[in-house]
Amino acid sequence: MTDATLRDVARASGCSVATVSRVLAGTRPVGAETAARVRAAAAQLGYRPNHAARALRSRATGTVGLVLPQITNPFYPTLVRALTHALHADGRAVLLADCDDDPEAEAEHIADLLARRVDALLVIPAHERRSREAVAAAAARVPLVLMDRGCGTGVADSVAVDNATGMALVLDHLAAVGRRRVCFIGAAGTASAAAERRLAYESGAAALDPGAPDRVLLGDFSAEWGRAAVDELWESGPRDGEPGPEGEPGRCAPSGGGLPDALVCANDLIAIGALQRLQQRGVDVPGQVAVTGFDDIPMATLSAPGITTVRQPVSELAAEAARLLRRPPQDGTRPHRTIRLAPDLVVRESSAARRQSGHSARNEQDMTAQQDVTAQQDMTAQQDLTAKVEEAQ
Amino acid sequence: MTDATLRDVARASGCSVATVSRVLAGTRPVGAETAARVRAAAAQLGYRPNHAARALRSRATGTVGLVLPQITNPFYPTLVRALTHALHADGRAVLLADCDDDPEAEAEHIADLLARRVDALLVIPAHERRSREAVAAAAARVPLVLMDRGCGTGVADSVAVDNATGMALVLDHLAAVGRRRVCFIGAAGTASAAAERRLAYESGAAALDPGAPDRVLLGDFSAEWGRAAVDELWESGPRDGEPGPEGEPGRCAPSGGGLPDALVCANDLIAIGALQRLQQRGVDVPGQVAVTGFDDIPMATLSAPGITTVRQPVSELAAEAARLLRRPPQDGTRPHRTIRLAPDLVVRESSAARRQSGHSARNEQDMTAQQDVTAQQDMTAQQDLTAKVEEAQ
DNA sequence: GTGAAAGCGCTAACAA
DNA sequence: TTGTTAGCGCTTTCAC
């Protein structure tokens, strides 16, 4: 049994295909009675518009391409979920492409999606530099929004978490629970998350301790690195009490000797690895050392103790991306928008104040430091005015 | 600048659109020289076929719908990755829909995907019973493969892990490392994973201990439940040494008293919750109690100790699903295929042999020897010899 | 082996 | 407000 077409509906309702099209697409005003008749006939025949025909004619597929570096990155599923929901709410379907962190695969996927005539693209670039060419080329053809990561300057609109604010929330919190000897375990490189979080730490940590900004260890965004960093600190770092030698920058170089009382990790994976290795070494978390993460991936709740972290405003990020894609196509080269949304701090046991040394059996008490909604909007608006924003180098 | 069309290529290469189409689609034999000329012209113009037009004409979109209950379920990202790769290798694009565990949303997404003329559907049903209607209706219109979960009998082809084999691997392994007093922490309900894993435990555990098949606790597939189950066992269960009262079925009812020396969990989330609560109670894992999971989600590696678990053969599952979708459409009502693929056991520290136990398999003795803080490696390679199917990775 | 022509189902001009 | 007409870019008969 073949599907009903517009013509079938037209015949059944006794009017022309054009009228039926107008009723069903809501493009033009149509007489109430006719409209009713058309709708009845359509329902009766179980009419389903053929998107392929519609796409061919109207040059719009109602489809958005979503290009990810690796869906197995633990932060992305949440984001993908929010994005698909936001886009489906707009009546758009989502074509998914996973690039396996390979910029060449990414370029191919982008080309394929373009050939499939997606109306727009949402891209989390696989590589800060090597993704740029393909992304820029695509952005010239369809509306394109970069998410989470950047890929050079002035390529396209972008939406991401405000890393600086997030890091500031962490540092404020650590100060409030009396931590001073903080140390940053981050990721090397110039990608936005790595660089911005590191810079935010370096500029904010001085408020806790003059030596803190120099206590920085850089690796990558993995649990493996979190473990290694703790080993580095606890093995080659100066012992508690004895004044340490002046360390090189890039190593953890406590100005007054002693081990850190808080590890600020650039993401949750690092934090999980660090936490794990601390526990294996018999270090009490949070009793002796607090540990914080970034992103609030599902695992951050599941570890024991749960990890204090910065929750990315996933729904808002998705909504903002969807909004950018809804905007009418550009007349000429309007400057790109860079939208940064303020995150929340989620306080869990890994950063509890020292006296309540942590084996509270209740793991689920996430205390969300609720961020003022107005402030967040202001943040957005403010950034909107700054049309062009340079990536931190 | 508008895209080049077939006509453009035809003009540039001095032949008809039909010929160009045949060259580019490879549908019919074409003179070698003409073909070369066409290809050159196409490349020169940067020709990209318009999929919408192609779809309209050939009634095939080259697109597959992937319908998920919740992409945030930690097992799915890996599966989605494998599926998209397998499908992209076939030149198909993937339309993604996330249903938020809601069968009604699922039905809508399926209808939408059908309206968008997907060539086929891949569905992980949100609900064993309530997904059935929409799935069956869709299966009547396009090739449809169920993955991971079922939804009633005889609805469509399906591909899933062989839960029975997986559970048998776990029980064999526990026997080999000298565990006898095993207890199952599973999920209630009739959904395939829940029911099959439970049944496999019940029929396989007797080999370890006559009372084992009755030691079954049922909740859901969450870490929360894993924690609760441990509380139930350690609080209301009989103390070590004292003979316990005959317990009701559904509770853990050790026939000879005493706490379990191994917790067989129906998935990794339960295992993570159980492990966590055991540690909070000061129970040594694996010293006193072994813990095993199922699925091998990323978190299973990240916990300390790493969790011994059953790794789903994700690439093979994806390949098999893609293969089913490639098959030509059915003539009449051929019976549906149900494909079950054997998984591997991944031995990690959570089930290491106790040092005092004298007679364990060689593998596990090696394991024990390596079990210091730095031994974090999966023992997959060795176990592969025991497992019934080798991974093609 | 190649070309001409006829649509796939729909929307957008242009008339009425 | 409604109908008529012309395609969107492609594949696929059918001729040659």
Automatic annotation (TrEMBL), chains A, B:
Keywords: DNA-binding, Transcription, Transcription regulation
One Gene Ontology term of the molecular function aspect: DNA binding
Stretches for region Disordered: 234-255, 347-393
Coiled coil spans: none
Bias (Polar residues) ranges: 366-385
Residue ranges of every copy of the HTH lacI-type domain listed in the record: 4-58
Residue ranges of the TM segments: none
Keyword Transmembrane appears in the UniProt entry: no
Protein name: LacI family DNA-binding transcriptional regulator
Upper classification of the organism: Bacteria, Bacillati, Actinomycetota, Actinomycetes, Kitasatosporales
